[in-house]
Each structure stands twice: as C-alpha cells, then as structure tokens.
Amino acid sequence: MKALAAGTLQPTAAQAATSTKRDRNSPAIRLIVLDVGGTIIEDRGDVPATLQSAMGKHGITVTPAEISEWRGASKREIIRHFVERQTKPPAADREKLAVAIYQEFNARLGEIYQAVPPIAGAEAAIRSLRQSGYLLATTTGFDREITLPIFHRLGWEKYFVAIICSDDVAQGRPAPFMLFHAMESARVNSVAEVMAVGDTPLDLQAGTNAGLRAVVGVLSGASRADLLQREPHTHILSSVANLPALLSSKV
Question: Cis peptide before 174, with omega less than 30 degrees from 0?
Fold first, then answer.
C-alpha cells in the first residue's frame, strides 16, 4: 500500500469501491469512537509487562507473545483466560485468584498511568474534530478505575460524550458491545454514522463486528502495519493526528 500525504495507507481497490458506494448512499459520519491506549495515549509496553508481572507473582506463567495476541481486550478477561488455562477446579478458587491478580495489576498500572503522555498531536486532533461538529467517545480494555483518572489529569472529559470502559459491558473486544454502548450514550442510532479508531487487530475486529461505516487502524500503538492490514478495515493512519485530514476528505 502507498502512503498518502495525510499519513493514510491507501485502501485496496475493493475497499475503495465499497467506501465510495457508502459515501453516495449513507448519511455523514456523526460519531467517532477512539480507543485509548496506543491511539490517543502513548503505549510504552507497560500493560503487557504489568500483566506478565502480576500473573507471574501468582504462579501463572505467560510469555509476551501470548499476551500480545490479546492486545486491546478487557484486562479482566485476559487474566481470567490465563488463570483458567493454567489452574484446576474448583471454579471459585480460580475466580478468587483472577480477582487477586487483577487487583494487583490495576494498582500498579494506575501508578504508571499517572504520568503517561498523550500521543503527539492527539489533543489537537480531538479539538479539531469537536470544532468540526463530530461527537467523540472512547472505548478501552481498561476499567473505569484506570481510565477516568487519565482523562481527569489531561482535562479531556469535556471533549467526549461517552467514556466506555471494559467493566461497562459483559464482554470486551472483539465483541462490539463497547461500540454499541458508545452509540447509545451519544444517541446515534445508525452504524452508518459511526467510525471506530484503534491500534490493535481486536480494535478493528470489534469495529467490523459492529458493522460500522468506517474502521480505522493507527500505527502509533501496539501493532505493526502488516498485522492491522490483515484485518478488515477502511483506512490505516500513521496516527490519530491525521484523522481530521482524513475526515475532511469526506471518507
């Protein structure tokens, strides 16, 4: 794929044809749903390292490669998956262990994210999108205890109609429920009016499972371009900073 001036990787011919057809027959995008870590907040590898450490202290051995396959998923679900895979019944004991690991992970990550900065150009892009009249929401694999302090520290709550966290839904990515919850909160009824933006394959899978008008990958976070390009998507950007330019092109 060739790089475009706005930092976009050009869609395939089939994707371009589909996008053009949608542009003619669909209403304009109203709601943009942004992932958090790796999309608007820097991803410095803290999450997988902290997950691995917290599980290792409780006898659950996982490799970075195994955790990488779950990037973008609910952190509770990640821990529960590995606990269930490596321990035996009774189920109550497994759940107790998963809760203990999660609490330790959450406490440590909360400390780390007191200082993690935004992606370069993210806030300017967010302000530009709001000034252009778009509704903005976020979804994340973090729970509310981690997420809200980040937005409060940055003063970003004012930009978003909804901040949807993994503990707001029954199942995280690649399930589409966080995206639907964001639509509900924003009072947007049609998936043809929604764009999702994220940095992991699971982000793109969730957007595709939701049937959204636009599913955009960004290269500022956890995943290489080739991994994102394997997933159904409409565009790949180098960063969320390029999103206003993409939208001004009437995607």
Answer: yes
CA angle (178 as vertex; 223, 209 as ends), nearest 5: 65
CA nearest to 218, candidates 37, 19, 5 = 37
DSSP string, the chain: -PBPTTSEEPPPHHHHHHHHHHHHHSPPP-EEEEESBTTTB---SHHHHHHHHHHHTTT----HHHHHTTTTS-HHHHHHHHHHHH--S-HHHHHHHHHHHHHHHHHHHHHHTTSPPBPTTHHHHHHHHHHTT-EEEEE-SS-HHHHHHHHHHHT-GGG-SEEE-GGGSSS-TTSSHHHHHHHHHHT---GGGEEEEESSHHHHHHHHHHT-SEEEEESSSS--HHHHHTS--SEEES-GGGHHHHHHTT-
Between CA 229 and CA 208 the distance in angstroms is 13
Residue ranges and CATH numbers for the domains of the chain are: 8-43+117-248 (3.40.50.1000), 46-112 (1.10.150)
> pLDDT tens digit string along 118-135?
999 999 999 999 999 999
Which neighbouring-strand residues pair with 196? 33, 215
pTM metric for this prediction: 0.85
